[in-house]
Amino acid sequence: MKRTTLLFAALTLIGSGLMAQTPAPGTQTTTPKREARAEHRANRQQKRIAQGVASGQLTPKETARLERQEGKVDRDISKAEADGKITKKEAAKIQHEQNRESRRIKREKHDAQTRK
């Protein structure tokens, strides 16, 4: 009897310790994934544009156009983050825009035009 009581007490303490370490549903303990994913991808695409400029694959006109379009995506990310959280719908819209920009960057970097 004493042994089962001791075992029950130990399990209760362990269980309550685990419960104290898990966050409550709906709370964020780290950077939200959607926000981090959108920001990280935007940074990678900026690096791709910069690499294209450095290598001469992008003309000044192409660069200006890509930068302007990336600025729109950045504004949309900021607008979506304004309330502190990007919803699934907003994330899907941002991902669609980033996919389109990625294709444009690739197309411009691999066309026959080069900086002179």
Q: H/E series, N to C? A: HHHH
- Output mean pLDDT: 83
Q: Please identify the structural class as seen in this structure.
A: mainly alpha
Uncertain regions spanning at least 5 consecutive residues: none
- Rg is 24 Å
Helix segment count? 4
Q: What does the largest sheet look like? A: none
Instruction: Classify the helix fraction into a percent range.
Output: over 70%
Shape category: elongated
User: Approximately how much beta-strand content do the residues carry?
Assistant: under 5%
Number of strands: 0
Report on the architecture of this protein.
By secondary structure, the chain is mostly helical. It has helices spanning 2-21, 33-55, 60-81, 88-109. Helix 3 (60-81) packs antiparallel against helix 4. The longest helix has 23 residues, at 33-55. The chain is elongated, with a radius of gyration of 24 Å. The model has no long low-confidence stretch (mean pLDDT 83).
What would the keywords be for this entry?
mainly alpha
Helix and strand topology:
Elements (H helix, E strand, L loop, with lengths): L1 H20 L11 H23 L4 H22 L6 H22 L7
Helix pairs in contact: 2-3, 2-4, 3-4
Q: Quick summary of this structure?
A:
The chain has 116 residues and is mostly helical. 75% of the residues lie in helices and 0% in strands.
